[in-house]
Amino acid sequence: MESLDLIIIGGGPIGIACGLEAKKKGLTYLIIEKGPIVNSLFNYPSNMQFFSSSEKLEIDEIPFISIEAKPKRDEALEYYRRIVSTNKLNIHLFEKVESINKTNAIFSVVSDKATYSASNVVVATGFYDLPKTLNIPGEDLSKVSHYYDNPHFYASQKLAVIGASNSAIDAALECYRKGAEVSLIIRGPEVGHRVKYWVRPDIINRIEEGSIKAYYNSQVKEISKNKISIDSPEGTIEIENDFVLALTGYRPNFEFLQQIGVELSNDDKRLPSYNPDSMESNVSGLYLAGVICGGMETHKWFIENSRIHAKIILKHIQSKNS
């Protein structure tokens, strides 16, 4: 089995950027992605619009032209898909990495389809695959989802949206406008300040006029077939309910990181250990890239500020080979 210079785990924008940089430097590499190209973006809501402008989502200085200043999900899918195909990147799709082990200076990467060998590994797996669960009775009911796609599904239904971030607010507004009866359950005292600046006034106005019912300083404590129970400042409230969107955020796969030897901080942030000058983790030859570097601080790293990780990593790998 030929040993590669680099294996990249994750075929999102940052994994693709690492592949482009490896190819430019003449290194042998492979990107392994468990789903389609940019799997996380593919699983974003179908009508999602990015907070950032298109140029901030560009990788390797390849122009991203969008109809509006802030591109939509489908435009991003087209952009990153064309980069992969035009540059003929070596990428395996719908292949899941199950384990990574290191013997001497060589990594053995085992997927559900094959085993590979490489001198270096980049983990760029993001955090969108594992939702932060509520850990309450009824969360496992089929009416509950931690992901949202299209508002049409919830038309004429009583929908509870849990959360106060962009994903929750977008879902609440879209579903209300398609005819859902929306209740918004927010743990804090107000709509989150990270909500897109052109969206936040919209949701506040809909709440104030009564079109969307908001429960502040509240938490859902139980979900049943036809209703939900809410702990609120006024006491326990029960409301009729058909569906629940628990859009309370996501987290990296810490278990996978620990299995491959990456050290995590002992506090709630669960920050992985890496050198910011090289992006190399505490495991020599194992690099971290993209949003996974932020641990539970999932609002710290984005495509915009982590695309530079590719150049940092490949520069360090090249320096070791020279």
Short description:
This protein has helices at residues 13-24, 39-42, 73-86, 166-177, 200-208, 254-259, 303-306, 309-321, and strands at 3-9, 29-32, 91-92, 97-103, 106-111, 115-123, 130-131, 144-145, 158-162, 181-185, 213-215, 219-223, 227-232, 235-240, 243-246, 250-251, 274-275, 280-281, 286-288. With 322 residues, the chain is an alpha/beta fold.
Describe the fold and architecture.
With 322 residues, the protein is an alpha/beta fold. It has two domains: 3-130 and 250-321, 3-Layer(bba) Sandwich (FAD/NAD(P)-binding domain), CATH 3.50.50.60; 133-246, FAD/NAD(P)-binding domain, CATH 3.50.50. 23% of the residues lie in helices and 25% in strands. The strands form five sheets. Strands 1, 2, 3, 4, 5, 6 and 19 form a seven-stranded mixed beta sheet that branches. The protein has a five-stranded parallel beta sheet with strand order 8-15-9-10-11, with helices on one face. Strand 1 (3-9), helix 1 and strand 2 (29-32) form a beta-alpha-beta unit. Helix 1 runs parallel beside helix 8 (309-321). The protein is elongated. It starts with a strand and ends with a helix.
